[in-house]
């Protein structure tokens, strides 16, 4: 597409698709409709798909994984990590410890059905963990590729 923008090493359409509402927050959702929406967006050139590993307590990543089958190479997959949710969906805070980050990534890769995530970032700062520790763990993961 002619209206792509360069963001770091990615050439992307200037508008992305945030998928949180497809699993929670704005009322009932329909998996079939959500999958069709993601697929249509990608087919029309949307190239950034954004989620969080805690959206719908993992439901959102499962949904996106299904929607991106056969389309993964056409998108920049952006995932926020570190949000903690209770069994009732309540927000419990954040956990940016290196071990938690690596655990979160392992589960995200499985739920999404992918071998890598293009943009992986903390959802918020964790006042209990120095940002250098979180970013250092992220760097370790990049080096492991």
Description:
The structure is a single chain. This protein has a single domain (5-143), classed as NADP-dependent oxidoreductase domain (TIM Barrel, Alpha-Beta Barrel). The chain has helices at 31-43, 59-67, 98-112, 131-143; strands spanning 5-7, 10-12, 17-18, 48-52, 76-81, 83-85, 91-94, 119-122. 34% of the residues lie in helices and 21% in strands. The strands form 3 sheets. A 4-stranded parallel beta sheet has the order 3-4-5-8, covered by helices on one side. Helix 1 crosses helix 2 (59-67) and helix 3 crosses helix 4. It starts with a strand and ends with a helix. By secondary structure, the protein is of the alpha/beta class.
Main attributes?
single chain; 145 residues; alpha/beta; TIM Barrel; 4-stranded parallel beta sheet; two-stranded antiparallel ribbon; 4 helices; 8 strands; globular
Number of strands: 8
Q: Provide the CATH architecture.
A: Alpha-Beta Barrel
> How widely separated are the two ends?
30 Å
Which sequence of SSEs, written as H and E, runs from N to C? EEEHEHEEEHEH
Tell the overall outline.
Answer: globular
Number of structural units classed as domains: 1
Instruction: Provide mean pLDDT, rounded.
Output: 93
Helix and strand composition category: alpha/beta
What fraction, in percent, of the residue positions are helical?
Answer: 25-40%
Q: What's the CATH H-level homologous superfamily?
A: NADP-dependent oxidoreductase domain
Give me the Rg, rounded. 15 Å
Report the total helices: 4
Taking strands numbered 1, 2, ... along the chain, how are they ordered across the largest sheet?
3-4-5-8
Q: Looking at CATH, which topology would you report?
A: TIM Barrel
Which CATH top level class fits?
Alpha Beta
Poorly predicted regions are none
Largest sheet: 4 strands, parallel
């Amino acid at each position: 597409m002619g209206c792509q923008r360069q963001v770091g090493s990615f050439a992307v359409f200037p508008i992305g698709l945030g998928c949180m509402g497809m699993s929670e927050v704005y009322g009932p959702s329909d998996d079939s409709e959500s999958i069709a929406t993601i697929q249509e967006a990608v087919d029309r050139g949307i190239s950034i798909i954004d989620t969080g590993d805690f959206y719908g307590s993992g439901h959102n990543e499962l949904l996106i994984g299904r929607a991106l089958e056969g389309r993964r190479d056409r998108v920049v997959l952006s995932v926020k990590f570190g949000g903690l949710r209770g069994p009732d969906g309540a927000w419990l805070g954040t956990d940016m410890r290196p071990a938690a980050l690596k655990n979160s990534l392992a589960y995200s890769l499985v739920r999404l059905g992918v071998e890598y995530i293009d943009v992986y970032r903390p959802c918020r700062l964790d006042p209990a963990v120095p940002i250098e520790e979180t970013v250092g763990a992220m760097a370790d993961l990049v080096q492991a590729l």
